[in-house]
Amino acid sequence: xxxxxxxKGVFESWVTNASNPVPENGETNLPVVTDxxxxxxxxxxxxxxxxxxxxxxxxxxxxxxEPNELHSDYDMIRIKxxxxxxxxxxxPLIYYTTDFGQGWYDPGKTELDYETTYHWYAVAYxxxxxYTSLPWNFTTGVKPPPCAGYRFDGDVDxxxxxxxxxxxxxxxxWLTYIPRHTIMAVSSHPDDEGIFFGGTxxxxxxxxxxxxxxxxxxxxxxxxxxxxxxxxxxTNADTIYFGRTATTSIGLPPDLYADLFFPRFxxxxxxxxxxxxxxxxxxxxxxxxxxxxxxxxxxxxATYIRTFQPEVIITHDFDGEYxxxxxxxxxxxxxEAYDRAADPxxxxxxxxxxxxxxxxxxxxxxxxxxxxxxxxxxWLFHDYWEQVTIDTDDNGNPDMTPRQVADLxxxxxxxxxxxxxxxxxxxxxxxxxxxxx
Length: 437
Hints:
Blueprint: E1 19-22, E2 27-30, E3 46-49, E4 59-64, E5 77-80, E6 84-85, E7 88-89, E8 94-96, E9 102-105, E10 117-126, E11 129-132, E12 136-140, H1 164-171, E13 183-187, H2 192-195, H3 200-207, E14 212-216, H4 227-242, E15 248-250, E16 260-262, H5 273-282, H6 290-308, E17 312-315, H7 320-323, H8 325-340, E18 357-360, H9 402-410
Parallel strand pairs: 2-12, 13-14, 13-17, 14-16, 15-16, 17-18
Antiparallel strand pairs: 1-3, 3-9, 4-5, 4-10, 6-7, 8-9, 10-11, 10-12
């Protein structure tokens, strides 16, 4: 439309529809009630700019939760019709400025829900001729907690309830939850857990869902190899054994929520168990402190036992499977720690704990195992390792045996070449048989 300035080449655009919606079209996270004391306000007010081409005789506001495309009676709910005429407000919920520049509508406190998208438009009238705006929408926000703006005494976590969770937070360390690890596996080097313990970790962790804590006495750092190399390999292997990401902790005091622990006794090429104890005391060979090193290893494992309170402990053959001094030291230290952890006279800041069973890796197959000793009914390899019970593809169908999963985990020990898990396959019993008899 051209006004008086036409001859000067100046044009002004005249608008025939309501425009400039507030909230903006597509706006999100809008409040439902901003004033807790309000009896009627929704907290979200709809407003628009009136047409400039004429003075609107009134407005219809169409409002609802269905998308508006056809502007039909089935799309929206017609909220108000001809809400005002000639500047006289008929409904107090719809207002406009004195020069008809803008109107607004408050849906009311009871009209809006949380996390809901609302669609609306305004119809302006030039006389009886309607001019419909574009369709607009907005989305309300998440419902705030019932105590928003204030907090009860004792509601430490701010969830509007004073409950046991708040008590745990307030109580501090003396009520700290310690997760019960029902099995503790104590191995000598990274990779021993698979080679000699076979399908133990995969079977109990994944098939039976029993919590496991794993102690590797050394980090496989013989010579100049940094301990982190094989610690990382074992962490990756345990992740495969457990069927979830394994977490690692170094030394004492232990992290209560980790799965794998490295006390970092120095790995060394020794020819006798006493040389191993000597090395384990201070990392220095042949300096006459084997007794101190042995006691240090026993006390360390005892502290782990008291901390995690396992029901069953598994470890190496007392004769080191094939005579390995480090394996001997691990098996002997663990067996003595089993007793030491239960002894009330031993004080380390933890309560005594008596594990119910301890298993050592024994087999007379292939000449392995302790000569002349038979552990009938208590072999470390048992029947369930050979059953296809673990789903490695996450498709709901088991596709591997626990021993095969152990072989898969051993592939993570890349610095050691290829391994096969079960060097012997004797099958007897279950670790938890007769546990509570």
